[in-house]
Design goal:
By secondary structure, this protein is mostly helical. The chain contains twelve helices and two strands, in the order ααααβαααααβααα. It has a two-stranded parallel ribbon.
Length: about 250
């Protein structure tokens, strides 16, 4: 009597049963393998091609802009975006220096990560039991603005590290800074140095004074809580500190 081959569906069911039996016998290994597979897939679909395009293309929208627009719609408000792109050569040196001093003092020399600041941040946050100090470099902030979100989950942070490394390998420091200064939020719906200059001081960025540049740099960490054109204690104290650091570095 001829031998009857199992049907394809029978073979699939058999393999499925064997996989389920394996998962039940080794649950910890199974969970770890599944988590690893998710991470690999997430890393594989990161926007590496988009970062390459940034060599010659100026992005019109960022993940943070989309997030802000979605929040505005949820509250029934119209999302208004103010942004005017200008090349790095038109941004005054005082503003460039003030932002670097305020946000990432070793920007020109590190490879995307400031490990000393990271260590100091971890130690202080552990001491105070809260996120009292950040350690994100300008490149990390740009990556987060462009492609990620304000979420603090570990997978998002891991994506940020991978994309930061890739961006530093792909783009020049000057291009990274140009993108950053044109895309970051400087107030609700205000994006980039030119828009911030017009919004707060009613002038184009190249006409900013040294003190105005320091004031703009001062509000980057919390642009919705503080205004560069208001003499609040925070703005006065932080802008003065930035000016002192610039002077100490011969800027």
């Amino acid at each position: 009597m001829p031998e009857v081959s199992p049907s394809p569906s029978t073979g699939v069911r058999g393999r499925a049963r064997r996989i389920l039996a394996f998962l039940r016998r080794r649950p910890v290994l199974s969970v770890m393998s599944f988590a690893f597979a998710i991470v690999v897939v997430q890393l594989a679909v990161l926007p590496y091609g988009s970062i390459k395009e940034l060599k010659t293309r100026n992005p019109k929208q960022t993940a943070f802009m989309e997030e802000h627009e979605a929040h505005a719609k949820e509250k029934g408000r119209r999302f208004r975006k103010m942004q005017y792109w200008i090349p790095l050569r038109q941004i005054p040196r005082d503003l460039v220096d003030a932002v670097v001093v305020a946000e990432d003092g070793t920007f020109w020399s590190h490879g995307g990560f400031d490990w000393y600041e990271f260590k100091e941040s971890v130690e202080r946050n552990l001491e105070e039991g809260r996120a009292a100090r950040g350690a994100s470099t300008i490149t990390q902030q740009l990556v987060k603005n462009l492609y990620l979100s304000s979420s603090k989950n570990p997978l998002r942070k891991f994506k940020e590290w991978v994309l930061t490394w890739y961006m530093e390998q792909t783009l020049s420091k000057s291009r990274i800074l140009e993108l950053y200064l044109n895309l970051i939020e400087w107030g609700e719906g205000v994006y980039g140095a030119e828009a911030a200059s017009r919004y707060y001081f009613d002038k184009s960025a190249p006409a900013l004074t040294r003190e105005e540049a320091a004031r703009l740099a001062a509000i980057i960490p919390s642009p919705r809580r503080h205004r560069a054109d208001v003499d609040s204690r925070y703005v006065l104290r932080r802008s003065q500190l930035i000016l002192e650091r610039m002077a100490a570095r011969g800027m």
